[in-house]
Write a structure and sequence with these properties.
alpha+beta, seven-stranded antiparallel β-sheet, six-stranded antiparallel β-barrel, disordered N terminus
Length: 477
């Protein structure tokens, strides 16, 4: 998890764990068509005292019954304390401890489909959902998407139709809009707070792979994770996920995953998918900084510059080239690379996304037909074995699909270590994410080629790439 440029506040994911002792522990946590009868948004400020006395109650009455509590339990094995082991005390024996996390969720389909944050349920062996009317149901995860920090749960309602909170179907949120946050902060019970949309398109938060958040000053605290951010139409416009805080409590800076990403994950689950199949642009980009803007002769920073294009990919077929600056996507401005990645990620493979491109001094619109990342070369996953420095490691051939799966540059090639295992590879310091570049000075291009290279000779010089740096290590029998 990256930390923001702010030094003093702490980025708090609002789902934490705590021991369970049989009582209901107080735990901390991180932080989906129009509703009949509600008018179009009114963005005019109040004009008189009677208007100021208007209440959010009608919206709450529609939205709150669809907000649930999510309880997750997991077993954690504690480490032995060597001090107690030295004296033969029982405290030195590793023990299992049950930890729990508390979060919120939203019913998005009447048959019991619920969306929440992935961090609320990740690693949980027992999940329970408590409805607004206090009925409790066992739940199961049918889709988890760690990259977007979203998860979809299902409860068995025995045919009963539950109240639903609709997911906003259009991207019309504006800074200054009134919003409500609903959840279970600190486990005190369902709570409603109100505020405004403080900012949009926050991409430097760094809480997931598609860091693009709605910022709000509505009070959000531990336990609100996975709860809805609701607009004045009674629609879910975001899923509350994290806060900036010095104390772990609300400081008026909260962040919500936008409805478009929530809708994409929920639609995948409804369609029977167990993983979100996201498209790719087929290009590598970087944010246009002020220095980059000067070098390109632009009057201001902003946008995402194409630095490389995958041959035959979607961007190449649409005519994009190195040096092009993407300044808009889906009719919305692209201020940096994070915004572009988010806009692409909310589409499905096969869909078309309009991009506004600054090229040769002018701006034009290009239609790019997105597709799933290429799976060429074949994955060829294998566990290396024998008397060699990488014994025990699991390796695969890098392709755009594999790179996307592991959050790497899609244009990387080579052999990726996906697991160091328990053998000599782990002892030698190899890590998941390392890319093997050469053995004894000979470049390595495939998993099969790596296996063959390691079988020859009595000593090895292995060159890897780790986080952009090349490292060479020597091993002998």
């Amino acid at each position: 998890m990256r930390f923001s440029r702010l030094l003093l506040p702490t980025l708090v994911l609002l789902a934490a764990c705590s021991p369970q002792d049989g009582s209901k522990a107080q735990t901390t946590t991180h932080l989906g068509g129009p509703v009949p009868g509600l008018a179009e948004p009114n963005r005019a400020p109040p004009t008189d005292f009677a208007t100021m006395k208007m209440s959010f109650s009608p919206i709450v009455k529609r939205a709150a019954p669809a907000v649930v509590n999510v309880f997750s339990q997991r077993v954690v094995r504690t480490q032995a304390d060597p001090f107690w082991s030295f004296f033969g005390g029982g405290m030195g024996v590793p023990q299992n401890r049950v930890e729990g996390s508390l979060g919120s969720g939203v019913i998005v389909r009447a048959d019991g489909l619920i969306v929440t944050n992935n961090h609320v349920v990740e690693g949980g062996t027992e999940l329970n959902v408590v409805l607004a009317d206090r009925r409790e149901f066992a739940a199961k995860v049918i889709l988890s998407d760690a990259r977007a920090d979203l998860a979809v749960l299902k409860i068995d309602t025995k045919g009963e139709r539950l109240p639903v909170l609709p997911i906003a179907d259009k991207d019309s949120v504006q800074v200054g809009d009134l919003v409500l946050a609903i959840g279970d902060p600190f486990g005190v019970g369902q709570t409603v707070t109100n505020g405004i949309v403080s900012a949009l398109a926050r991409t430097d938060v760094g809480a997931n792979d598609f860091s693009y958040f709605i910022q709000t000053d509505a009070a959000i605290n531990p336990g609100n994770s996975g709860g809805p951010l609701v607009d004045m139409d009674g629609n879910l416009i975001g899923l509350n996920t994290l806060i900036y805080s010095r104390t772990g409590s609300s400081a008026g800076i909260g962040f919500a995953i936008p409805a478009a990403m929530v809708r994409r994950v929920v639609e995948t689950a409804v369609g029977g998918g167990h993983a979100v199949n996201r498209p790719w642009l087929g290009a590598k980009t970087q944010t246009v900084t002020s220095d980059t803007a000067k070098s390109l002769g632009l009057d201001r920073a902003g946008g995402a510059m194409v630095t490389a294009v995958y041959p035959g990919g979607p961007a190449a077929r649409a005519g994009l080239g190195e040096g092009d600056v993407i300044v808009g996507a889906d009719g919305q401005p692209v201020t940096d690379e994070g915004v572009l990645n988010y806009r692409v990620a909310t589409h499905k493979p096969g869909e078309t996304i309009p991009l506004q491109i600054r090229k040769g001094g002018g701006v034009r619109t290009v239609e790019v037909r997105l597709e799933a990342p290429s799976a060429t070369p074949a994955r060829d996953e294998r566990i290396l074995s024998g008397r060699e420095p990488l014994a025990g490691a699991t390796v695969v051939n890098l392709s755009p699909a594999v790179a996307d799966e592991y959050g790497l540059d899609p244009l990387l090639t080579g052999v990726l270590i996906v697991k160091a295992g328990q053998g000599f590879a782990a002892q030698a310091g190899f890590q998941a994410g390392d890319i093997v570049r050469a053995v004894n000075g000979t470049p390595v291009h495939s998993a099969s080629g790596l296996a063959a290279a390691l079988q020859s000779g009595q000593g090895w010089r292995v060159t890897i790439e780790r986080q952009g740096r090349q490292i060479t290590a020597s091993f002998g029998l």
